Amino acid sequence: MRVARSPRTPYVLIAPAVIAMLGFLVYPMGSVIYYSLQHYDVTQPWDNGFAGLENFRVLLFEDPLFWQSLGFSVKWVVVEVVLQLLFGLALALIVNETFIGRAISRALVFSPWAVSGVLTTGIWILLYNPSTGIFRYLADLGVGSYDTAPLADPSTVFAAAVVAELWRGVPFFAILLLADLQTVSGELYEAASVDGASRLRRFVHITLPHLKDAIILSTLLRAVWEFNNVDLLYTLTGGGPAHQTTTLPLYVAAKAVQSHDFGYGSALTTAAFVVLTFFSIAYLRLSKFGARS
Amino acid sequence: MNRVSRWQIYVPLGLYLLFTLVPFYWMVVFAFRPRGSDSLLPWPVTFDHFEHVWTGMGFSIFFQNSLLVGVASLISTTVIALAGGYALARYDFRGRQAFLVGMLCTQFIPGAMMLIPLFEIFRTLGLVNSLWALVIAETVFQLPLSLILISGFVKNIPVELEQATWVDGCSRLRGFFAVVLPMLRPALVAVGSFAFIHSWNNFLFALMFVNEQDKFTLPVGLAFTIGEFSADFGALAAGGVVAAVPVVLVFAVIQRYLVQGLSAGAVKG
Question: ipTM of this model?
């Protein structure tokens, strides 16, 4: 071969990525862990200094909001991921069939994926508002009542946020699962239908096993994403009413940004990172990701 | 093979389309119908709301800022991920495995929780209130998935195709441009559009790293429209249309490649 393979080449190629990620991901993460062991409150500089595990002791034993926001995060993630997966899978199966108008249907049902959390909030505020929203026009038709205000009512605010997030979240699963459905070999289905297998049996014995790894990976990615993402709840409910819809990251943002308690905010961050990492490892292990079925 | 009957497709699809499209329609109606109108049709059409948000509320500047950040993030993410992804796919080097594991770990880092340390870094670099801070943060968070996607694609290209060009007297670099790059087009479209859409939509970084109004991006501008209790729903809807049109257009063009790209590359590794 004319061109000698320099052993330096791969390092040169990968250097920009490594430098960017060391400087702006790894180093900040390290500094979060460092700060979590410090008293570091911009408004109370006289108290700053090494704190040991004090922040974590407060977090575990004296902060009901930590447990409440963690509990809500879990509820939010589970409800969103399960519903998004079910609707996304159904949608992927439908638009994988051959029918007239398939291309345009795909483009339309996938489109909310491209929309931001803030824009989703804007749209659903219009829809939910009692004076501009859909419930007023439904009431004109005799369905429901004129004073329905899902975001103002503590008993409906959760469902209202879930539906709005579902609207832009389902396409993620639909896109990923459709991509994977297209790699199922048609011969398997034909063989199965020659053997007289029903549609349901073919779905359970061919489609689902094929999709297994894609489902595990997409639910994990989505769970982490839904856990971390704050845009929608931050703008739609602001975590309220009365901290009812405050996720852990929302709580951190409030702690760090509004009360400038960086030390304690960093401890919360570290706790969230540990929870996510353990959850992810356990999830991949228990679901036997990559194992032959 | 027994086929699915028509209604089994069209009924659930129609219902879901309703759920998808009614919210978009609502936004369009409020953006185009005159103030005080109760009609559910955007008629008579008025552009007053657009004029108000575009010139009066500064959305023309927000739009430029978003476009700048989006395009710059697209370019930097694609170029860095292309170089790194190629190295990961084609070379076996020391530290490769550690790098892959490290990249996976970064997926669990909550963006919201990096705000404090990133803010301190950008302050040291003098980049607070600079759009470049957003470009850097966006690029870094996009890199891991982009690298994985591109290296998956490169692996799918037979190495013999590349080697053939070296024998012909091409350098490795020229062989890369002649053979690999054209075949990577769907991957580059996917990675580039991911990067553009993500940075166009990012809210939290833009909210925290930029405080001056002439540096706001569209999501921040939109959030302030939502936060105002004046309840100018026409302005909110028009601002929403301004923020939605570019990404929805980009998405409409690329969604076909996206499904193809993912089924060829990422999902099956």
Answer: 0.87
Across the interface, which of A1, A9, A180 has its CB nearest the CB of B166?
A1
Q: Domains of chain A: which residue ranges?
A: 63-286
| Amino acid (1-letter code) at residue A234 | Y
What's the pLDDT band for B227 if we cut at 50, 70, 90? confident
Q: Which CATH class name applies to A63-286?
A: mainly alpha
Which amino acid, residue A61?
A: F
Q: How many CB atoms lie within 10 A of CB B136?
A: 24
Q: Determine the topology of domain B58-264 in CATH.
A: MetI-like fold (1.10.3720)
For residue B204, which residues of chain A lie inside 8 Å, CB to CB? 230-231, 234, 253
What is the DSSP track for B131-167?
HHHHHHHHHHHHHHHHHHHHHHHHHHS-HHHHHHHHH
Nearest to A59 by CA among A44, A75, A70: A70
pTM for the full predicted model: 0.87
Q: Alpha carbon A104 to chain centroid distance?
A: 27
The alpha carbon torsion through A172, A177, A180, A182 (nearest 10 deg) reads -110
Would you list the domain boundaries of chain B?
Answer: 1-46, 58-264
Pick A114's closest partner by Cβ from B9, B118, B247.
Answer: B247
